[in-house]
Design a protein that fits this description.
Distance between the termini: 57 Å
Number of helices: 14
Radius of gyration: 30 Å
Order of helices and strands: HEHEEEHHEEHHHHHHHHHH
Largest sheet: 4 strands, antiparallel
Number of strands: 6
Strand content: 5-15%
Length: about 400
């Protein structure tokens, strides 16, 4: 059924071939469609002129212009690209422009907004140490210099080293989070892993804010408050693990739930959320904000708020249909895709997008199978080579595996 529905849209041969212009000539579209329909090379699944699903361009937008939707306006009537060719006669009376506009769906916008809260928390944690450094180092007992009774400032390199460790351990946690993301997202799903990342963010924020709880006597830099330092180190490490996971799973999730024509826009929005989080941390860390001896615990604990919001609005996060396809659950993949696109199940665009996902998963599985067979073949050849090495060495002296075997062998 999906193949039959996909074959209806022979105009998909136009995909990625239309000039990147907001106004496209009607005769240009007609000529390209006629050329595509007459080409014997475009035969696929029994569809004359259909776009090859085996092409690497099969999952791109129908018109390769960023931010465009799959709707066009022609002669004051709105039509789907599936029926685009029907609106052009063989010999048009005059050139008619095709106006292309952008669009989205509410479920997709809600899922993307909730997912990008993780990126916002990641950017906030990245920038929270900069403008806050002076009051925070004083509270931890690790200022860059200490005053003698005579009022002479003595640099303390050991304090600088400890502060560098507090700041940089965040990146060590991010490295751990990044490396663990691929396996866990494939096992648990994009949504489930994203919610676990949010929970880790929440724990990290609480640990960082709790570093103000231990009582410490401020001795002007001569006495380090190790209880506070250890709690802050642990909180930064945990927040780094969450940030590393978010840096991988959020772009992956946005790319899988969004249609092709919106992937660039959502990817840019994700980077914008990262920058906004860093900007908010920098501004709030100023002395006029929370960058004081009394306000720094609040500043470090603020990421707990977007974490709670994300957990509260987690019903808006719809699981990636591509992950369901990879898991072999086509029914759930279709259900999620219908919800994300906010269209009926028998919509042609939804069915074709689902077909492209299934085809891509099949081709990926076939490629993995080929690579596995090649690896096994190489391993078998190396094993055979090793077993015959003794006999070849006797016949040829010190010959290696790469040498030619003796004629008798």
């Amino acid at each position: 059924r999906r193949v039959a529905l996909a074959c209806v849209r022979q105009e998909a041969a136009m995909r990625s071939r239309v000039a990147a212009d907001s106004f496209v000539s009607a005769s240009y579209l007609r000529d390209q469609l006629l050329l595509a329909s007459r080409s014997s090379e475009n035969l696929v699944d029994g569809c004359v002129g259909g776009f090859s699903r085996t092409s690497s361009l099969a999952d791109l937008a129908y018109v390769a212009v960023p931010g465009l939707t799959q709707r066009v306006v022609h002669n004051r009537s709105v039509v789907s690209l599936a029926n685009l060719s029907d609106n052009f006669s063989e010999i048009p009376a005059h050139e008619s422009p095709v106006v292309l506009t952008g669009g989205s769906s509410r479920p997709l916008a809600g899922a993307a907004a909730v997912a990008m809260l993780s990126t916002l928390m990641c950017g906030y944690s990245l920038g929270s140490m900069n403008t806050l450094s002076k009051p925070l180092r004083a509270a931890l007992g690790i200022p860059p210099a200490a005053l003698t009774p005579e009022g002479v400032a003595i640099p303390l390199p050991s304090n600088d080293l400890l502060w560098s460790l507090i700041v940089s351990i965040f990146m060590l946690g991010a490295l751990l989070g990044c490396n663990a993301t691929t396996a866990l997202t494939d096992r648990w799903g994009r949504k489930t892993y994203l919610l676990w990342v949010t929970a880790v963010f929440f724990v990290g924020a609480l640990l960082e804010a709790a570093s103000a709880l231990p009582e410490c006597a401020v001795a002007g830099g001569w006495l380090v408050c190790f209880d506070r330092v250890l709690l802050l180190l642990l909180g930064r490490l945990v927040s780094g693990i969450a940030c590393g996971g978010a840096a991988v799973v959020v772009p992956l999730y946005l790319g899988e739930v969004s249609p092709a024509h919106l992937r660039g826009a959502l990817g840019t929005a994700n980077q914008l959320a990262l920058g906004l989080g860093m900007l908010a941390a920098q501004l709030l860390g100023l002395p006029a904000g929370l960058g004081t001896l009394q306000g720094w615990p609040v500043l470090l604990g603020l990421p707990a708020l977007p974490a709670l919001l994300q957990l509260l609005f987690q019903p808006l996060l719809l699981e990636s249909p591509r992950w369901y396809v990879v898991m072999g659950n086509d029914i759930m993949a279709e259900e999620m895709l219908v919800q994300l696109r906010d269209r009926p199940p028998d919509d042609l665009e939804v069915q074709e997008e689902l077909y492209c996902m299934l085809e891509a998963a099949r081709r990926g599985h076939d490629l993995l199978q080929i690579q596995l067979e090649r690896s096994l073949t190489r391993a078998s050849s190396h094993s055979s080579c090793g077993s015959n090495l003794g006999a070849q060495s006797q016949a040829m002296g010190a010959a290696g595996c790469g040498s030619a075997p003796p004629a008798a062998h």
